[in-house]
Amino acid sequence: NGTLGDKSFFDSADNGMKMLKEEFGDKVEVRTIEMSYDQTKWEPTLLDISEEDYDVIIVGTWQMTEMLEAAAPMYPDNNYVIFDTAVNYAGGDFDNVYSIGYKQNEVSFVAGALAAKVTMSDMPLANDEKVVGFLGGMDIPVINDFLVGYIEGVQYVDKGIKVGISYIGSFSDSAKGKEMALAQYNQGADIGFNVAGQAGLGQLDAAKDVQRYAIGVDSDQAEIFAVSDPEKANLITTS
Hints:
Largest sheet: 5 strands, parallel
């Protein structure tokens, strides 16, 4: 339910499909379908694919939950996987759906601890302000789970560090992501954590523009930009 090229969440999922093909070769057929960010296309595409002869159909993110809950009982012989969320097993017959959730708060705790260490360090681009940033795609439970872990990681190192919080309201609007990240940097943050998929790439652009640090998400974003934009990659402390 988006497009490839986010260098983050959807690209990571597609890499899993490529690994599957590499490992099993002609024994499997794999297909990645980009449904775009136009939500009106998601449900009809899911239903169309459910009519075809696939052994496993994979969808992701909370935005697909209700659509899958509607489709899965209609196609009891299909097997579905949904990642980054779960269907409501108590509310229906979803024996043909496997849900994958993540402990994103745990990895965010480590990211928060790192951010705190950076802002208190004598690293070349760190300032005297005890401020770090968090850029979320949307104000939703999974993103706030990232946020809670991040704040606790920061406070584990130093309870006096402030965490600036912004929500883009989108997982695709990288221009708005950059605008919000720039605002955080201008307010004293010397490092920011993007949890916003493609929109979060704006954080990395902002870090390069003002020469501040960033934390990537979902994929090794420093490695992704190592060749195409080494200056940007060098500002990504970790992902």
